[in-house]
Amino acid sequence: MNDLARMARCLELGRLGEGRTAPNPMVGAVVVRDGEVVGEGWHERAGAPHAEIVALDAARDRARGATLYVNLEPCCHWGRTPPCVDAILRAGVARVVAGMVDPNPLVNGRGIAALEAGGVTVEVGVLEEACRALNAGFLLAITAGRPRIVLKAATTLDGRIATESGESRWITGEEARRHGHRMRDLHDAVLVGSGTVLADDPRLDCRIPGGRDPVPVVLDTHLGVPATARVFQRGRGTLVYATRLPAASDHPATVVRVPEGPSGVDLGSVLHDLVERGVHTVLVEGGGRVHRSFLEARLADRVLLYLAPKILAGGPSWVAGPGVDDLASAWGLKVAGVERLGSDLLIDLER
Known about the structure:
Blueprint lengths: L1 H14 L12 E6 L2 E7 L8 H9 L7 E4 L13 H8 L3 E4 L11 H8 L3 E4 L3 H7 L1 H8 L4 E8 L18 H13 L2 E5 H7 L14 E5 L19 E4 L11 E4 L2 E2 L2 E2 L1 H10 L4 E4 L3 H9 L5 E6 L26 E8 L2 E7 L1
Parallel strand pairs: 3-4, 4-5, 6-13, 6-14, 7-8, 7-13, 8-9, 9-10
Antiparallel strand pairs: 1-2, 1-3, 11-12, 14-16, 15-16
């Protein structure tokens, strides 16, 4: 029971870095000696000390003979920072409890082997399912070469995202919109199609106290979005994916040429490039054609529906295009949770 509680604390600590650690995973660490917590830490951002180092620095001499809990196998290679395994051995830790093996080919059991060779007792697999869930984006990036994709939409009860005349502000109330900005804060990138930019001219930033802006991503197959769009504000680092490059070199965003796909740009190429740029989680905010393209490609890992108690009986849907022919062809999802946000509901769905 103590191991479970300590690992649960590691997960709490690790989540404090959500949206800030990519391309690294979220990691928390706890040092316990004689039943007392003597050090804690988490990885705050890429390039900062890893969780194990922060916890060991807090424990100081009390780390000798202690147990170190960490939700992911300690690293054994040089990156921006030195190997955590070396610091653990120097500190004299007697036992390491890791939530899961790190699938990164540079680690993948080597950290565990190095600790055991140094005389440390190692146990792996405590709360492993929860540890994997915490770093779902990191794991997909390592094993599948793509980020974790979360579709997000604010809709009426009949699935509409705007009136027939195009009015969309605001479908949901203030609390739901604030929650949506929190989701931007927790994701590495936010993605929309060119139609959404042309219709709404969004900034795609995070407007909550203490929040940080995700990388704005625009799917603009034929480069039809004007350079004056707000998403191209200076310093935003906006990425545009298109099937051709601009004629001039003064485009306000970084334009990446990718092959053409069934409904625009090839999504697989887009996602591969995003992972290469260190993006592990992407919040897809539409519009309807973009949502459909991710669903059709079976790339939507999670769906967040902010549901307003309104009926428009017309207007664009959050999933565009023709309906499926039969129920067996429907995209199936599982309800992971339902939360009330003011007068609205948030329905959290997973594949």
